[in-house]
Amino acid sequence: MPLPTAWSTVNGTLPAAWRSVRLAAQPDIGMVIDAFYIFARGLDAGDLDDIPAGRIDLVQLSDLAHPVEHGAVADMARHRRLLPGAGYFPIDSPLQWMKAIGYEHVAQLSRQALVTE
User: Fold this and answer.
1) For the segment 78-96, what is each residue's pLDDT rounded down to a tens digit?
2) Residue 7: count of CB within 10 angstroms of its CB
3) How far apart are CA 51 and CA 108, in angstroms?
4) Under a CB-based contact definition with an 8 Å cutoff, are residues 21 and 54 in contact?
5) Rounded Cα distance, 1 and 90, in Å
6) How far is residue 73's CA from residue 46's CA, in Å, rounded to a whole number?
7) With contact defined as beta carbons under 8 Å apart, do 54 and 86 qualify?
8) How many alpha carbons fall within 13 Å on the CB side of residue 71?
9) Assuming Cys at both sites, which of 7, 30, 77, 115 could form a disulfide with 57, CB separation 3.0 to 4.6 Å?
């Protein structure tokens, strides 16, 4: 199954990724939610409301110093991430959403955000 990323032409939206997980019809397959991709596409945590908490296996958090530049999403995702709260993303939004739906699985910091240039 193609990895849903913000620059994907196959599975680049939350509804498309969630549809793929549902169509797989395997109870042990879930979603990995990366806050970067939510905000890079101009979405917010409310766009996750159709995905049950039990089907989200991991939430990855990171931030960005400025809005995503047109045509530079992949580069920014790989090399420009900051630690949550160090940029302009409304990082409280996914945290509040996780609490509201009772998400109790893993949340991690983006590995790229931990690398300094």
Assistant:
1) 788 888 888 888 888 888 8
2) 14
3) 19
4) no
5) 30
6) 22
7) no
8) 0
9) 30
Residue range 44-66: mean pLDDT, rounded? 86
Total domains present in the chain: 1
**Cα separation of the two ends of the chain:** 33
Residue 6 lies inside a defined structural domain of this protein: no
pTM score: 0.77
- Return the residue matching tokens 């089907």: 55
Residue 5 lies in a domain: no
The residue segments making up the domain with residue 51 are 31-114
Answer whether residue 11 shows pLDDT above 60: yes
* C-alpha to C-alpha distance for 31 and 17, rounded to whole angstroms: 8
Residue 9 lies in a domain: no
